[in-house]
Amino acid sequence: MREMIPKRIGKIDFALMGPKEFRKLSSTKVITADTYDDDGFPIPMGLMDLHMGVIEPGLRCKTSGRKMDEDPGHFGHIDLAMPVIHSGYSKTVKDVLNATHPSSGRIMLTQDRIDHYNKQIQALIDSDAGTTVSIGGISRRAVREAAKSKTCPHCGEEKIKVTLDKPTTFREEGRKLTPKEVRSRLEKIPDSDLLCLGFNPKITRPEYMVLTVLPVPPVPMRPSITLESGERSEDDLTHKLVDVLRINQRLRENRDAGAPQLIVEDLWELLQYHITTYFDNQTAGIPTARHRSGRPLKTIVQRLKGKEGRFRSNLSGKRVNFSARTVITPDPYLSINQVGVPELAARELTVPVRINIHNLSFMRELIKENFVPSNPDKYIPGINYMIRPDGRRVKLTDENWEFNHDRLEPGFIVERHLMDGDVVLFNRQPSLHRMSMMAHEVRIMKGKTFRINLCVCPPYNADFDGDEMNLHVVQSEEARAEARILMRVQEHIRSPRFGGAVIGAIHDHITGMFLLTHGEASYDIDQTVRILSRVENKKDLPKPDYPKAKGGPRWSGRQIFSVLLPDDMNLKYNASVYFADRTPKENEELDMVVEIVNGNMIRGPVDGNSISAFKGRILEEISRLKGADAARDFIDKVTRLAVGALMETGCTTGIDDADVPEDALEQIVDAQKKAVKKVDKLVSDYNKGKLKPRPGRSVEETLEVEIMSLLGKVRDTSGEIAGWHLGMDNFAVIMARSGARGSMLNLSQMAGSIGQQAVRGERISRGYEKRTLSHFNKGDLGADAKGFVRSSYKRGLNPTEYFFHSMGGREGLVDTAVRTSRSGYMQRRLVNALEDLRVKYDDTVRNTANTVVQFKYGEDSIDPTRSKFGDAVDIDALIEEVTSGGK
Amino acid sequence: MNDNILWLNKLVPKHVLLDDSEVEEKLEPLNVKREQLPRILLKDPALKALDKEANPGDVIEIHRVSESAGSNLAYRVVVEE
Ligand SMILES: [Mg+2]
Ligand SMILES: [Zn+2]
After folding, report:
1. Residues of B in contact with A851 (CB under 8 A)
2. To the nearest whole angstrom, how far is the Cα of A590 from the nearest Cα of chain B?
3. Among A99, A829, A877, B21, which one has the highest count of C-beta atoms within 10 angstroms of its own C-beta?
4. Separation CA A560–CA A554 (nearest Å)
């Protein structure tokens, strides 16, 4: 299309349009309210006049000569018999009327003041810094000042105030002003006074706010629809324009025939009503115009406004085809870059395939399978539509499939159902970062849910308590290539936020790997083969670590895991189970340090610090040095191996995992009693005025700080006491220490003591007068009265403890609620500010105007995704490599 | 740099007013034209604290401390408003 050549917009003026321009723009004058003649042909100078565009195939526009889908149409116009107020401007009209003097049309300011305001506005315009806000502010001040003066400074006459009855009736001391009078008053205002009224006299005039000509929108903007019965139904806008034209016609006839003033005025007001509702059918103060059925008409403002309006529903957000949405469920046997798609969805979603000599016979087979399935239990993709080289779409049906099967040839395009290996985009809202929408490979499955690997839950922030996700099928080769290269899950294992992995083993995977590899864990040949059979492994089974074990040779878990490691891997680091309070040597003896030499795991357990997202060292190493595909493969295999290990060992946790012996409980109670006694001592010191303030704090603050630290300590001690009795034979402990789920704090709160509850970081202090609850004495500053919870979750809380705990818990809930809404808005503003910035090939960051925002991306031109936690080079590893002789 | 009190603040980076030949020399390799530069207002306190008086259209080189790259050069063109 010739018209589609892009052009740069030099300047836009936003201004009122006048009758001259309306006529100039108009392709035809509309004089009759009729639309089509008896043959269904548009009546000339009617509302569907062919000059205003065409909505029927075959006809041509009489203005531009174009056909239906090529022509956006052209405006027409209606000459109004009598002027009518534009309801959107009635407030401005009132202000202008009150600021000017009716007989002379001058603004009611002295020439000095006029010049003063004119100069200010002109300066803003000349400096090119003027905005509607800054200029509007000045003109509003001028108008207000003018409206205040009772007499006109130019002729000395008094001025009567004009009032506005919404929406469009003006009165002067109760007498109605006709739109005609209003217009003639506005016409009188000289150009020289317009600037300080806020009008640019070069392009607009205030009398344009009173309409004498009404533009008629192009026909394609208000197409009529043909119902199934063959009846034609007109658009709401057309209905409204019919009303306008009818009343306009009657008004003209009555006026010309010299009808009584009363009748003319009635018709005039009716015309005003129709034009007001034509613009906005929810104008306050007038009844809404309705369809014959009683349905309110959707006129111009209703088309644009609100959630269902053009902006929010068609421009900011769009519905798309080739997409599906359903509940997600987990499937650990899928690869992280796959997605399980239900057959039902796969048969609706299609991929366009261009037929060539290579795929012709395959596609023919698919067509045949679609109608005569060779195996009804097996999913074989079918074909919904076929597009002939001339562009015609043919739906394949029971009747025509054989014919179309035979005439299919290179050049045709078929819309094939989804099949295994297709690339689709998968998304979960809210889409907060780029990992919220990744490309997956399709696996067609039975059932009705999307299936995903558990490792991709963190980037999507998904769980399976009913979450739904969206799937989009990419339609072109370019899009498919782009999705494959840029969007596949493995390309997003490393986060651009901090340069580490965001996708990795979670929960059971970590427990499983720990159970497989910790301590002296070993497996006989059956178990070893069972576990290893879950992963594709081309290496031979290694020599068993325990060849002479009773009942045959046994392999250590570390050996089994080493199968997944690259041969050149050398690492040494602390495991997640590392005891921070013991020496490195002790830890090494306890098997809490991981060491990998030439791809063989020598010691240490595989836990969170090895394979989890964010902190897994092995995962980090593989994803950074071996690339995305190797990392994907590693994650897939680790998760399968972990499930295999769990099948051999088992893992369960229950309330008895929080059991501690009676004497341990007594120890905890003792520690608490001692601490509470100390607190009481502090409080009595304070009451006696003996407490010495700490530097920079008041006595009260000192007391609070001391008590908080005392009670914090006792929580830790009771946790430790409980911890001594919760050993590595306890699955809850294994999960917490290996980094799978939960923490030792969680456990000590279940088994030992919950500890101090806080609101806003302080002990609980609100409630009744001088006390938190009526259970305590006024002024009681002791531990129990201020929210210290001695009990554990397992033993249960007493009523006052329960209440304090709820207060602390509520703060957490409120915080999350507030945080999400605030950070959501923050995110929106950032996205709007940054969305069109690009990193160019010369590494500069520029906006769409091509001005520089950053001279070097990130100031160091490093892609954080490929960095090691933000650093371009892993210096430590390099030094290690060089000093160890380049191994 | 003169001894204006402004430069004593560690958060204020070094500003250098470039002459025309320097501008060409520095911007050429960056593939940036003068009008594509970010802007700095003529009334910016840093410009007032310079030895020479800056005029609209001049280019300022800013020596910033960078968290990621150690140090970093940025360029800005002086505008009146
Ligand atoms: Mg959920
Ligand atoms: Zn046309």
Report:
1. 35-38
2. 39
3. A99
4. 11
Parallel, antiparallel or unpaired: strands B39-41 and B59-66: unpaired
Q: How far is CA A866 from the centre of its chain?
A: 26
CA A303 to chain centre: 25
Please tell me whether the interface predicted TM-score (ipTM) of this complex is above 0.85: yes
Nearest neighbour of A860 by CB, restricted to B32, B68, B81: B68
Tell me the CA–centroid distance for residue A456 and ligand 1, in Å. Answer: 14
How many structural domains are present in chain B?
A: 1
Structure tokens at A795: 């033993």
User: Is residue A99 a contact partner of residue A143, using CB atoms and an 8 Å limit?
Assistant: yes
Nearest to A459 by CA among A496, A486, A484, A424: A496
Quick one: tokens of A817?
């609620």
Q: Which residue in chain A has the smallest CA separation from B74?
A: A855
Contacts of A312 (CB under 8 A, 6+ apart): A306
Read off φ and ψ for residue A608, nearest 5 degrees. Answer: -50, -40
Q: What are the φ/ψ torsions at residue A700 (nearest 5 degrees)? A: -60, -45
pTM of the model as a whole:
0.73
CA nearest neighbour of A703 among A689, A715, A691: A691
Integer Cα distance of A851 and A339 in angstroms: 42
Distance of CA A27 from the midpoint of ligand 2 (Å): 9
pLDDT along chain A (887 residues), means of 10: 67 86 92 86 89 87 86 92 92 90 83 85 74 77 84 76 86 87 90 86 90 94 85 88 92 89 90 93 88 90 87 82 95 93 93 92 88 86 88 85 86 91 93 92 95 94 94 94 94 89 90 89 88 83 83 87 87 82 79 86 87 88 89 92 90 88 86 87 84 83 85 84 82 89 86 86 86 88 85 90 92 89 86 90 88 89 86 82 68
C-alpha to C-alpha distance for A510 and A620, rounded to whole angstroms: 15
Structure tokens that stand for A680 in this block:
């009481």
> What is the C-alpha separation between B69 and B48, in angstroms, rounded?
28
How far apart CA A9 and CA A23 sit, in angstroms, is 24
Q: Which residues of A touch B27 (CB under 8 A)?
A: none
A420 Cα–ligand 1 center, Å: 27
The amino acid occupying position A73 is G
Distance A760 CA to ligand 1 centre (A): 28
Question: If you write DSSP's letter for every residue of A422-456 in order, what string do you get?
Answer: -EEEEE-SS--SGGGEEEEEEEEESSSSEEE-GGG
Q: How far is A173 from chain B (nearest CA, A)?
A: 49
> Which of B31, B38, B69 minimises the CB distance to A859?
B69
Q: Which two tokens stand for residue A390?
A: 């001339």
Residue B15 sits in a domain of what CATH number?
A: 3.90.940.20
Q: Could you tell me the residue range of the domain that residue B36 belongs to? A: 3-79
Torsion of CA A693, A699, A701, A706, to 10 degrees: 60
Q: What span, in angstroms and rounded, lies between the C-alpha atoms of A234 and A250?
A: 22
User: Does the CB of B29 have a partner CB in chain A at under 8 Å?
Assistant: no
SS3 A215: strand
DSSP secondary structure code for residue A129 in this structure: -
Residues whose CB falls within 8 Å of the CB of residue A699, separated by 6 or more in sequence, listed in order: A686, A691, A693
Assigned token pair, A78: 């209606």
* Helical packing angle, A507-517 and A731-738, nearest 10°: 100
- Which contiguous run of DSSP H or E holds residue A663? helix A662-688
Please calculate the CA angle A28-A34-A36 and round it to the nearest 5 degrees: 90
Cβ count near A884 (within 10 Å): 9
Proportion of chain B in helix, strand, coil states, percent, rounded to 5: 25, 30, 40
Q: With CB atoms and an 8 Å threshold, state whether A851 touches B38.
A: yes
CB-based contact A76:A215 (threshold 8 Å): yes
Residues with Cβ within 5 Å of ion ligand 1? Answer: A 463, 465, 467
